[in-house]
Protein backbone atom coordinates (compact mmCIF):
# COMPACT_ATOMS: atom_id res chain seq x y z
CA UNK A 1 0.00 0.00 0.00
CA UNK A 2 1.31 3.41 -0.93
CA UNK A 3 0.80 6.10 1.65
CA UNK A 4 2.65 8.74 -0.39
CA UNK A 5 -0.55 9.94 -2.08
CA UNK A 6 -2.11 10.54 1.33
CA UNK A 7 1.07 11.78 3.01
CA UNK A 8 3.36 13.52 0.45
CA UNK A 9 5.98 14.10 3.16
CA UNK A 10 6.77 10.37 3.02
CA UNK A 11 8.86 10.98 -0.09
CA UNK A 12 11.62 11.69 2.42
CA UNK A 13 13.22 8.32 3.32
CA UNK A 14 13.85 9.22 6.96
CA UNK A 15 10.31 10.41 7.49
CA UNK A 16 8.89 7.35 5.74
CA UNK A 17 10.94 5.08 8.02
CA UNK A 18 9.48 6.84 11.08
CA UNK A 19 5.95 6.45 9.68
CA UNK A 20 6.58 2.74 9.04
CA UNK A 21 8.02 2.35 12.55
CA UNK A 22 4.72 3.70 13.90
CA UNK A 23 2.83 1.09 11.87
CA UNK A 24 5.13 -1.73 12.96
CA UNK A 25 4.92 -0.73 16.63
CA UNK A 26 1.10 -0.61 16.48
CA UNK A 27 0.84 -4.01 14.77
CA UNK A 28 3.25 -5.53 17.27
CA UNK A 29 1.18 -4.14 20.17
CA UNK A 30 -2.06 -5.39 18.61
CA UNK A 31 -0.67 -8.89 18.09
CA UNK A 32 0.61 -9.01 21.66
CA UNK A 33 -2.76 -7.72 22.86
CA UNK A 34 -0.88 -5.05 24.78
CA UNK A 35 -2.27 -1.79 23.44
CA UNK A 36 -1.04 1.16 25.52
CA UNK A 37 -3.59 3.63 26.83
CA UNK A 38 -1.59 6.47 25.24
CA UNK A 39 0.35 6.72 22.03
CA UNK A 40 3.99 5.74 22.73
CA UNK A 41 6.59 8.49 22.68
CA UNK A 42 8.85 7.99 19.68
CA UNK A 43 10.65 11.31 19.78
CA UNK A 44 10.60 14.70 21.48
CA UNK A 45 10.90 16.17 17.99
CA UNK A 46 7.36 17.22 17.06
CA UNK A 47 7.77 16.35 13.36
CA UNK A 48 9.06 12.85 14.11
CA UNK A 49 6.38 12.24 16.73
CA UNK A 50 3.70 13.42 14.30
CA UNK A 51 4.92 11.04 11.60
CA UNK A 52 5.07 8.17 14.09
CA UNK A 53 1.50 8.97 15.16
CA UNK A 54 0.29 9.06 11.54
CA UNK A 55 1.84 5.63 11.01
CA UNK A 56 0.32 4.33 14.25
CA UNK A 57 -3.14 5.59 13.31
CA UNK A 58 -2.90 4.29 9.72
CA UNK A 59 -3.13 0.66 10.88
CA UNK A 60 -6.54 -0.87 10.17
CA UNK A 61 -8.14 -4.01 11.62
CA UNK A 62 -7.51 -5.63 8.23
CA UNK A 63 -3.76 -4.96 8.59
CA UNK A 64 -3.76 -6.55 12.03
CA UNK A 65 -5.74 -9.59 10.90
CA UNK A 66 -3.44 -10.08 7.91
CA UNK A 67 -0.38 -10.04 10.16
CA UNK A 68 -2.08 -12.39 12.65
CA UNK A 69 -2.86 -14.90 9.88
CA UNK A 70 0.66 -14.57 8.47
CA UNK A 71 2.15 -15.27 11.91
CA UNK A 72 -0.14 -18.28 12.39
CA UNK A 73 0.83 -19.72 8.99
CA UNK A 74 4.51 -19.37 9.86
CA UNK A 75 3.99 -21.00 13.26
CA UNK A 76 2.01 -23.87 11.74
CA UNK A 77 4.68 -24.44 9.08
CA UNK A 78 7.35 -24.50 11.78
CA UNK A 79 5.33 -26.96 13.89
CA UNK A 80 4.90 -29.26 10.89
CA UNK A 81 8.60 -29.00 10.17
CA UNK A 82 9.46 -30.00 13.73
CA UNK A 83 6.97 -32.89 13.68
CA UNK A 84 8.49 -34.10 10.43
CA UNK A 85 11.99 -34.10 11.96
CA UNK A 86 10.90 -36.09 15.01
What does this structure look like?
With 86 residues, the chain is an all-alpha fold. The chain has 3 helices and no strands. It has helices spanning 13-31, 46-57, 61-85. It is elongated and about 50 Å long. The mean pLDDT is 92.
Topology:
Elements: H1 13-31, H2 46-57, H3 61-85
Helix pairs in contact: 1-2
Helical/strand content category: mainly alpha
Beta strand %: under 5%
Oligomeric grouping of the chains: single chain
Strand segment count: 0
- Count up the helices: 3
Q: N-to-C SSE series?
A: HHH
Gyration radius, to the nearest Å? Answer: 16 Å
**Sequence stretches where pLDDT stays below 50 over 5 or more residues:** none
Mean pLDDT comes to 92
Largest sheet at a glance?
none
Distance between the termini: 41 Å
The coarse silhouette is elongated
Helical percentage: 55-70%
Amino acid sequence: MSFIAQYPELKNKRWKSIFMEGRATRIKAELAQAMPSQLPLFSHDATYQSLFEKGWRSVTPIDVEYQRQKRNRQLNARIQEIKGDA
